[in-house]
Amino acid sequence: MYLTMFLSSVGFSIVMTSVWPYLQKIDSSADGSFLGWVIASYSLGQMIASPLFGVWSNHRPRREPLVVSISILVAASCLYAYVHVPSSHNKYYMLAARALVGFGSGNVAVVRSYVAGATSISERTGAMANISAFQALGFILGPAFQAAFTLIGEQGVTFAAIDLQLNMYTTPSLMGAILGIVNIILIFIIFREHRVDDLGRHIGNINYEPEELNSQAESEEAVDQVAVVSSNILFFVILFVFAIFETIATPLTMDMYAWRRTQAVFYNGIILAAIGVESVFVFITVKLLSKKVSFLNNTII
Q1: Superfamily of domain 2-300, CATH level 4
Q2: What is the pTM of this model?
Q3: pLDDT, average across residues 234-252
Q4: What is the DSSP string of the chain?
């Protein structure tokens, strides 16, 4: 699951800094406002898919929604690499590709819920911190890969037989598709699902029996709703700030520093990679602090 989160994160962030230059290249009618819609389409797709995959994973083996969502992600990444092919309305094809990438990324909810159900209370905070760390690592390496791919250039290599331009814009997306295929293979070969209770005791197979559902409903009544709502609001604020940065960083730096498209993709990739390194240190700190707090609570009890 850590690897699934990492690969999904790489597949998302690897094209983040190049969306605006690529959009300008394939469709001259696209403006900054349309870039906002392209960025928003990813989040909209993920927002729609997350509850659907979540409900699916509650009643079926989690391997099913994971494989389907990653397959959608792979197909969308391939579509992104081909949005330059149509003779018109290319920007709408990019919009559709990013929406499908977001839809495929709805598996984040499945990953987090599985890890929550496969860990005891004492392990859970650390495991969640690890998930966030792997997600941040994906954010680091994605822009770093994109920065490295600028060496290919805007023209790159063209394979006329399959209408594929392998350049600094399409190569990252295709790499994301390859990583997705690797992820699917690993899920089939390695992933073995199990669940434990809060004390870490194995509680059988993944299929929910009626009595299990009743016991879960009873336990949910004791959930601190204020804490849940507060956490959701904080998470929303974080993603809101991140979305703003994702939308305006590349066009803003191109305007302010007169960077060419290649320079903007390269330098913004380095900036985002540096931000990701900082976030990993934060997640590690949270994990260490959570262990310390858990130890103090056990000592007091």
Answers
A1: MFS general substrate transporter like domains (1.20.1250.20)
A2: 0.76
A3: 78
A4: -HHHHHHHHHHHHTTGGGHHHHHHHH-TT--HHHHHHHHHHHHHHHHHHHHHHHHHHHHS-THHHHHHHHHHHHHHHHHHHTTTSSSS-HHHHHHHHHHHHHHHTTHHHHHHHHHHHTS-HHHHHHHHHHHHHHHHHHHHHHHHHHHHHGGGTTT-EEEGGGTEEESTTHHHHHHHHHHHHHHHHHHHHT-----B-TTS-B---SSPPHHHHHHHHHHHTTS-HHHHHHHHHHHHHHHHHHHHHHHHHHHHHHHHH---HHHHHHHHHHHHHHHHHHHHHHHHHHHHHHHHHHHHHHHH-
